[in-house]
Amino acid sequence: MKTFTLGGVHPEENKLSADKIIEVLPLPEKVYVPVSQSLGAPSKVVVEKGAMVKTGQLIAKGESFISANVHSPVSGKVVKVDDVIDSSGYKRQAVFIDVIGDEWEESIDRSPEIVSEITADRDTIIKKINALGVVGLGGATFPSHVKLMVPDGKKAEYLLINGVECEPYLTADHRLMLEKGEEMLIGISILKKALGVSKAFIGIESNKPDAIEHLKRLCANHQGIDVIPLKVKYPQGGEKQLIKAVVNREVPSGKLPIEVGCVVNNVGTALAVYEAIQKNKPLIERIVTVTGKSVAKPSNFMVRIGTPVSTLIEAAGGLPENTGKVISGGPMMGKALTSLEAPVVKGTSGILIMPAEESKRTQVLNCIRCGRCITACPMGLEPVLLAQLSENLLFERAEAERIMDCIECGSCHYTCPAGRPLLDYLRLGKNKTGLLIRNRVKK
After folding, report:
1. What class is the 284-358 domain?
2. Which of 158, 177, 230, 336 has the fewest C-beta atoms under 10 angstroms from its C-beta?
3. Model pLDDT for residues 201-228, shown as the tens digit of each residue
4. Strand 58-61 to strand 335-336: parallel, antiparallel, or no bridges (unpaired)?
């Protein structure tokens, strides 16, 4: 069975909500919609305090090349434009809306009928994906229309669809493949048309046999789309690892997948593309897993963007008494929330509630030079060296040692017997090194 070859770890899977069907979460009383929901420049607010908005109406416009439009996920009244603490713990500008009813923009097709025929041409697909605010839903939230604009001199050969969901606990993508498989496959065909490729592969780890078999059956009616079962290994969902596993190509250091003729999209992105092109629906909701060993009702919810995390936790049975940490995302790459009123955004894949006994960090000991972090690194880096360089503020040296190739998967941190906070230092180092690089380019 296929997999990537360099590094990787095998954390306990804990897919507690894998058999829980997607539930539509009732509308909250209020939503807080951040205007920066993509890997790029914040969008510019185009509504004012007191304005009445409909579900699907544009409320913030992405004016930069790498940016994404933001639409109202609800109908109601704009009460203010102010800062909200997001999942990263920082204050971000957001549109605050009091929910009144659920009146949608008339142009959105809300019927359950699946629209199979793809009539839009390549340019229309890219423009519409841009207009309707579709971004990558695998975590990075890169604007999807930019990814489809292949640079001059490059050629896309393969479209890879990430159905791996290797992060422990999370099951949103798994349920999507089971319950929205046909719509997702039409979305993949739309992406193929936009890229001008004839072949797409859906990579799924073998711990999801029901999704593999279900999509294989559906693919019989969709030309040029194959399901590729993969060996279970973290972080197989990283795009460079997925490319190596599926088509055995290696993306060079500092380069993007298009360098080896590949474009990678998440299964959730494919569904959002279907809804945008075939239903004229902006990206205003997504599937979010709410889970944890102490959670009364581990669930997969269809959630409107801007819904406070506290609303999801209540729907899953409330916050357990022994809670030590609430994480946005999974245990490997997720980040602890500083406020349960942080809103769900386009990149929110899960809310993990960890008991106190599991959320405490182990005592930090001296590095014993065992090399486990180096063996585990799927990018072939030396995490112990990069962490030391970051700790000592030696960012130019860190750049030379390829710190920007780090995908922040946490495999090094997971394997360290000394409890060294390697991922923390790597994130710090990447942030500061990236700033150095951007300042150098400006000069």
Report:
1. alpha beta
2. 336
3. 999 999 999 999 999 999 999 999 999 9
4. unpaired
Give the separation between CA 48 and CA 44, rounded to whole angstroms.
Answer: 12
Alpha-carbon distances of 156 from 150, 191, 392, rounded to whole Å: 7, 11, 41
- State the residue for tokens 């304005």: 51
Q: How far apart are CA 301 and CA 25, in angstroms?
A: 6
Q: Residue 443 — pLDDT band, cuts 50, 70, 90?
A: low
Closest CA to 164 of 1, 380, 327: 1
Find tokens 């579709």 and name the residue.
134
Domain ranges of the chain: 28-99, 122-279, 284-358, 372-442
Query: Furthest-apart CA pair in the chain: how many Å?
Result: 63
Chosen CATH of 28-99 out of 2.60.40.10, 3.40.630.10, 2.40.50.100, 2.60.120.10: 2.40.50.100
Residue 395 half-sphere exposure toward CB, CA atoms < 13 A: 14
96: confidence class by pLDDT, cuts 50, 70, 90 = very high
Is 3 in contact with 242 (CB distance < 8 Å)?
no
What span, in angstroms and rounded, lies between the C-alpha atoms of 79 and 400?
49
363: exposed, middle or buried (C-beta count within 10 Å: 0-12, 13-18, 19+)? exposed
User: What SS3 class is residue 403?
Assistant: helix
